[in-house]
């Protein structure tokens, strides 16, 4: 059991996309990384690549989330950072969104984020830092790829992050949030097969393109590091200037 001063981070959704890129950045910066994902094989692969610890978790399941943080405590004996990148998108047209779809998206994106923050806070010492992952969809009400269930869930993540920041400050834990714009990950791949759609979305940014996952991961790594020590309850929009207009 490693009981040294190496900081330890849990990255949910670490098996793919933004979470996977973050695992690589954190490992490079000297963190021990717990790669947590519903896709156990993907978590194993990333953990092997970054020299981390893989754990399979369903963030929407309270017992599963409890088991994740118990396993991390048993393995490392400390917890310094949490990034909640596990998420699902939904692109169903408004009139066709079922209650079941709405609930499924919220179970992962909202309740999953809440459960991870709550359980991580029980294990973190003072100085702990958390970063959630919302989306510009939560600010704009969608309008890129995700529709109402997704946009509403990401709006909830924005508010949840601020609320958690207020509640956990007294414990010496800071909570911040990133709101990415379109980012080239498997989540977006199918929607971006429609090149006209992709051109429209990328044309809305100042930079005329989507983000690479590492460009979001760098910002999250900064928000988890002591270099952002006076940043609390903040949402960092990383969208190539899309929200400017
Ligand atoms: N890609 C984008 O354009 C974009 C833009 C804004 C926000 N985001 C957000 O960034 C986050 C990461 O998305 P991504 O683009 O890297 O997508 P991705 O699909 O590449 O990765 C998401 C990961 O979350 C995991 N996951 C899904 N449900 C889970 C659950 N219940 N429990 C545990 N793990 C689960 C998946 O297995 C996957 O590995 C998401 O919250 C997404 O909404 C993405």
Overview of this protein structure:
By secondary structure, this protein is an alpha/beta fold. Helix content is 47%, strand content 14%. The protein is built from nine helices and seven strands, in the order βαβαβαβαβααβαααβ. The radius of gyration is 17 Å and the shape is globular. The chain has one domain: 3-Layer(aba) Sandwich (Rossmann fold), CATH 3.40.50.720. α4 links the parallel β4 and β5. The model has no long low-confidence stretch (mean pLDDT 96). The longest helix is centred in the middle third of the chain and has 25 residues. α3 runs parallel beside α4. It has a seven-stranded parallel sheet, with helices on both faces. Nicotinamide-adenine-dinucleotide (NAD) binds next to α1, α4 and α7.
Bound molecules: nicotinamide-adenine-dinucleotide
**In which order are the strands of the major sheet placed?**
3-2-1-4-5-6-7
Per DSSP, what share of the residues sits in E-state strands of 2 or more residues?
A: 5-15%
Radius of gyration: 17 Å
List the helices and strands and how they pair.
Elements: E1 8-12, H1 17-28, E2 32-37, H2 40-50, E3 53-56, H3 62-76, E4 81-84, H4 99-123, E5 129-133, H5 136-140, H6 148-168, E6 174-180, H7 186-189, H8 195-203, H9 213-224, E7 235-238
Parallel strand pairs: 1-2, 1-4, 2-3, 4-5, 5-6, 6-7
Helix pairs in contact: 1-2, 1-9, 3-4, 4-6
The protein binds nicotinamide-adenine-dinucleotide.
Nicotinamide-adenine-dinucleotide (NAD) binds next to helix 1, helix 4 and helix 7.
């Amino acid at each position: 059991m490693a009981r040294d001063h190496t900081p330890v981070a849990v990255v949910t959704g670490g098996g793919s996309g933004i979470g996977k890129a973050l695992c690589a950045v954190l490992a490079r910066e000297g963190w021990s990384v717990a790669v947590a994902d519903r896709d156990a094989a993907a978590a194993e692969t990333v953990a092997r690549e970054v020299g981390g610890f893989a754990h399979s978790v369903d963030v929407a399941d309270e017992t599963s989330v409890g088991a994740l943080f118990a396993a991390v405590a048993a393995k490392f004996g400390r917890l310094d950072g949490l990034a909640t990148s596990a998420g699902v998108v939904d692109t169903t047209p408004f009139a066709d969104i079922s209650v079941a779809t709405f609930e499924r998206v919220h179970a992962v994106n909202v309740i999953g984020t809440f459960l991870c923050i709550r359980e991580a806070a029980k294990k973190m010492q003072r100085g702990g830092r958390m970063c959630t992952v919302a989306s510009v969809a939560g600010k704009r009400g969608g309008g890129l790829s995700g529709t109402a269930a997704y946009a509403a869930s990401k709006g909830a993540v924005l508010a949840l992050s601020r609320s958690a920041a207020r509640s956990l400050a007294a414990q010496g834990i800071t909570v911040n949030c990133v709101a990415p714009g379109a980012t080239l990950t498997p989540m977006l791949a199918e929607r971006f097969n429609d090149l006209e759609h992709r051109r429209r979305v990328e044309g809305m940014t100042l930079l005329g393109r989507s983000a690479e996952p590492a460009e979001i991961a760098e910002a999250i790594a900064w928000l988890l590091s002591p270099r952002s020590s006076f940043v609390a309850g903040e949402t960092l929009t990383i969208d190539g200037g899309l929200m400017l207009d």
